[in-house]
C-alpha cells in the first residue's frame, strides 16, 4: 500500500472531503461524503486485488 498513485488518490479523496465539508451543508454534504467513501473503498479493493495477482 505504499504505491505513490494509491497514496495520491487517497489524499485527493481526503482533500475533496475537506473541501466539501467547508463548502456544502446538509444532505448534499453527506451524499458527497458517501460517494467519496465508496470511491475510496473501491480504490483500496482494486489495489489489494492487484497485490494478490
Which helices and strands, and how do they pair?
Blueprint: H1 4-23, H2 26-52
Question: Would you write up a description of this structure?
Answer:
There is one protein chain. The protein is an all-alpha fold and 53 residues long. It has one domain. 89% of the residues lie in helices and 0% in strands. The chain has 2 helices and no strands. It has helices spanning 4-23, 26-52. Helix 1 packs antiparallel against helix 2 (26-52). The chain is elongated. The chain starts with a helix and ends with a helix. The model has no long low-confidence stretch (mean pLDDT 94).
In short:
With 53 residues, this protein is mostly helical. It has one domain (4-52).
Task: Name its key features.
53 residues; mainly alpha; 89% helix; 0% strand; elongated
Q: Percent range for helical residues?
A: over 70%
Strand content: under 5%
Structural class: mainly alpha
Number of helices: 2
Please give the number of β-strands: 0
Amino acid at each position: 500500500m505504499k504505491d505513490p498513485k494509491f497514496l495520491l488518490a487517497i489524499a485527493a479523496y481526503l482533500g475533496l472531503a475537506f473541501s466539501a465539508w467547508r463548502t456544502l451543508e446538509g444532505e448534499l454534504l453527506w451524499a458527497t461524503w458517501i460517494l467519496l467513501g465508496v470511491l475510496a473503498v473501491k480504490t483500496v479493493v482494486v489495489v489489494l486485488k492487484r497485490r494478490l495477482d
